[in-house]
Amino acid sequence: MVQEGVTGFLCFLCAAVSIVTTAAIIWILGIETVAFFVKSGVTPWEFFAGTRWSPTFANPEFGILPLVNGTLMITVGASVIALPLGLASAVYLSQYASATARNILKPILEILAGIPTVVYGFFALFHVTPLIRHFFPSVEVFNAASGAIVVGVMILPLVTSLCDDALAAVPRSLREGGLAMGSTSFEVVRKILIPAALSGIMASFILAVSRAIGETMAVTLAAGQTPKMTLNFGESIATMTAYIVQISKGDTPAGSVAYLTLFAVAATLFTITLFLNILARRIVRRYRLAYN
Question: Is the residue at 53 inside a domain?
Fold first, then answer.
C-alpha cells in the first residue's frame, strides 16, 4: 500500500509539472502583454486592427494584422497542399495498399516527420525557391509560396497518420456491409468510410493546421521577415513566429516597448493555437462517443 501511494504521488507530481508550466507561461505572457499595452500607449483595437507593423523603427507602429496575414497565408497554403494529399494517402494506406506497400510507405512518412524544420527551411531556400523562380521569374527570393510548400510537406505525415487511424477505427462491419450490397471500393470509401470517420478526419485537420501556425524556422528561412498586408504568394512576408525569432536574437534592448511586443505577439499566437486545440479536442470527444 505504501509503495502504491508513493507511485501515485510521483505520477501526480509528473502530471503537475505540465500544469504548473502551462500556468507559468500564461501568467508571464499575460503580465508582459499588459506591460506592453501600458508602456506603448497602444489600445487593443489599434494592436489587433492596425495594418502596419514596425515596432523597431524611429516612428513605431504596432498593428499586428500584417503578421497575422502572413501566418494565415502560410497556414492556408500548407493546408491546401497537405490536407487533401494526407487524406488521399490515408485512404490508400487503409483501403488499397498491400501489406508490402504499407510497410514501405509508413516508414517513409515517419522519416518525413522526423526531419528537423531547419532542414526544410534550407531545402525551401536552395531548391524549392529556385524551382519556383524558374517558372515565375518575378517571385522574390524569400516568398510565401516556398514557405507554404515546405510546411505543407512537413505536416503531411501528421495528417496521413491521424486520418489513417480515424479510418481504421471505423467498424469493419460497415465496410463489409457496403461491399456486400454491391458497392465498389471507391464507393465504400466515399459514401461510408469518410462520412463515418469525418469527426476524426476533421480533428486531424485542425491539429495539422495548429502545427502549421506554430512553425518557425522553415517559414523564417523560406518566407522572409517582411511584414506586409498582401495576398501575393510570390512576395516576402513575415509570420508571428518569424517575428518572435527576430526579436529573440538579442538585438532589441530588454524592457523596451519593442522587446515587449515579443510577449504580445506570443500571447496572440498562444491564443490562436489554444483555440484550435480546444476545438480539436471537442471534435475528438464527439468522435469517441460515436464509436465507443
Answer: no
- Domain assignment of residue 55, yes or no: no
CA–CA distance, 268 with 272 (Å, rounded to integer)? 6
DSSP 123-150: HIIIIIHHHHHHH-TTS-SS-HHHHHHH
Give the lowest-confidence range in 9-23, 39-53, 146-160, 170-184: 170-184
179: exposed, middle or buried (Cβ count in 10 Å: 0-12, 13-18, 19+): middle
Domain extent, residue 19, equals 2-43
Quick check: 290 pLDDT over 60? no
Same domain, 287 and 237: yes
Distance CA 123, CA 146 (A): 10
**Per-residue pLDDT tens digits for 66-100:** 999 999 999 999 999 999 999 999 999 888 888 88
Supply the pTM of this predicted model: 0.87
Question: How many domains would you assign to the chain?
Answer: 2
**Does 37 lie in the same domain as 90?**
no
**Cβ atoms of residues 111 and 183 within 8 Å:** no
Residue 218 near residue 144 (C-beta atoms within 8 A)? no
